Amino acid sequence: MDMNISRDLCQEDAYRQSKPLEIYMFIDPLSTCCWGLEPVMKKLMVHYGSYFRFRHVIGGQFPKIVECTKKKYPDLAKSWERAGCLSGMSCDGDLWLEDPILAPYYLPIAIKAAELQGQTAGFRFLRRLQEVLFLEKQNVSKKHVLLDIASKVNLDVDEFKRDLSNSAAVKAVEFDLKMNAEMEVTETPTLVFFSQHLEEEGLKISGTYAYEVYVGIIEEMLGYTPLQAELPEIRTFLHTFPFVSTAEIATVYNLTTEEAEKWMKKLKLQGIVECVPVKHGYFWRYKNSTVAT
Prior knowledge:
The chain is α+β, with helices and mostly antiparallel strands. It has 14 helices and 8 strands. It folds into 2 domains: 21-183, Glutaredoxin, CATH 3.40.30.10; 234-286, Orthogonal Bundle (Arc Repressor Mutant, subunit A). Helix 3 (38-48) runs parallel beside helix 13. The chain is globular. The relative contact order is 0.18. This is ClpXP adapter protein SpxH.
């Protein structure tokens, strides 16, 4: 952890925020570690989301994946499979054997182009991109795949298409890369926590940790123990997160994988969710969702 993070680049956002904390999550859209942190991040949002604003920042390291030679693809595929089994967030490594990603440089621009339609739109786009990548083994460096994702999460596709070649999206990526350098971010995921008090420096934590570690950081940054929000009724949770893994349900609701799976199967019988088998486990789609997944 690093307590010496400058916030010069972030001051304008800070003045607009109303919550006491702001969290910047530096991500690599191709990273199994970032994908595997989703259950913990959802639990943090459910319990303490009223205390912080959250934004994604493109990590400066992700293009290194193109340095992977063809001979290393089998190793990368195995690494994905292991990561998916360990985190409970399925990863289908066959992508690297069937249609490897050779030029992912479009991805950060696409993510920022989606964010130009609003932060919520950006969140939806990134999540769907990860689902398409890790679960459906689609090559997300292809433009037609990105356009399909934009359509599925209800973006204005014509506007998104224009923004893919718009200087605003490119400048947003450049700003993110500048933040990487300013905050000395060298790996993903990295989370940087800021207080609303600009004179206070941020706290940086790189890698993945247990939920309790992030709660401890929130308490430290606030200077007091925040009230933990009660768990929402399952339909409320699924309305907010309409396509989730068994691991995400288990983590948020403090269940074992077996308990979570049994619970979701009951909801399936009630017609509330649809079971979506993936390579390693199951995902669950809320049937009342208006956003395609």
